[in-house]
From TrEMBL:
May be involved in modulation of pathogen defense and leaf cell death. It comes from Papaver nudicaule. Keywords: Calmodulin-binding, Membrane, Pathogenesis-related protein, Plant defense, Transmembrane, Transmembrane helix. The C-terminus contains a calmodulin-binding domain, which binds calmodulin in a calcium-dependent fashion. GO terms for cellular component: membrane. This is MLO-like protein.
Amino acid sequence: MGSGANLENTPTWAVAIVSFCIITISLGLEHLIHLITAWLKKHGKKALIEALEKLKSEMMLLGFISLLLAATQGPISKICISHKVAETMLPCRKITSITETLLAESSSPMDDSTIAPPATYDYCFSKGKVSLISQEGLGQLHIFIFVLAAMHVLYSVLAMALGNAKMRVWKVWEKETQTIEYQVYNDPNRFRYTRETSFGRRHVNTSTGTPFLLWIKCFFRQFFSSLAKVDYMTLRHGFIATHFSTNGSIKFNFQKYIEQSLEEDFKVVVGISPPLWFVVVIFLLVNIRGMHIYLWISVLPLILILALGTKLEVIVAKMAIKLGTENVITRGTPLVHPNDELFWFGHPGFLLHFLHLTLFMNAYEIAFFFWITYEFGLRSCYHDKIGFIILRIVLAVIVQVLCSYITLPLYALVTQMGSHYKKTALEEQTAKLLKEWHEDVRRKQRQKLVKDKDKPISPRNAGPSRFKDGQTDQTEAQAQVSINRL
């Protein structure tokens, strides 16, 4: 590291300009966050507001890391280790030994144009040792942590945005459930063989006879026909029939529920949990020359996302197979039964951590590539083979596309087939239904009052009329209490 002028020898206008730019950018970002929060509150996006708060806490964590690195650069750089230890587990080929480098720096002739070596080199070299990490290395590590956090947030937002764009067609399917044609086609009085339904023909055939063939079929299905309309309609019907009364299914917006559920998951995905930070430490540790660890880091997210997509397809297929085994005849829409046992470890939420890990590893790979390119250039020893560089970039793009357009929509739908539903995602719709019920009660009460005014008052109908009015008032009060609780 070269030395430069300190603030005592720096023009005041330079210090003022740099300070003004940094403060302006920081205040602009803070104001932007306030605008986004206000927009989310206006549109009732409670889950996204919590995700934004989680993002702010992550930014605060990055601030603490930056402060800690800045405050400890000097002391850490003065931690000295032996030359032998310093030359082990290097990420790049050693051109000259550290000892030779320090000797060359210390023995080089000094003149007025020569910059003196850093003080930490003098401090450790005087003891016959070298610095644990130089101040320049700590600065580069600081930049990498920032790039990694920013890339993870960007990847998560991009995946959720592209996934929601792919799921827009579900709004059309949801509106179709309100049509007369849909209700006639799915009439409960209509009997059919289960295997002859669209859902049965799609999933139950000779290729699903053994678990091996089932997994092979589901592996390829995620690429060509990952989510069909019949799957959405059948899983929707099974969810509503399991958790709600069939009579209220027409008014329930399943697509809206999935959207709100995915927003709940986003606040988990957008953060970097402590286990993921330890994963970063492990990746940095095993980045040893010759192991090509970052090529494996590029391949592993692809394996994880393909395994997750296959598992989700298998869950839907197993529900269809179980339905065909238990019921030869189907009334109306095939009725599948949500069950936690269909998922890994009997816990649908485990798939979210699986997806979170995949997105983070892919973001880590891209962040590391950009950081190395920025700090050391494309001809760095980290990029010793151009073929590996191209392969890593291609794999990162493939994983992002698969995650956004295939796995994420499939995950959003299939994970609703657990034994339980997300209560917070139903609050908005439940409040809306209760308000509609309240308005319906008030409308009927007004109609009844109008009819009572038109009727002549007699002892025969006076008593029952007062009783019914009181009962209606009680029902209205119960509805209002339910709304207030929400």
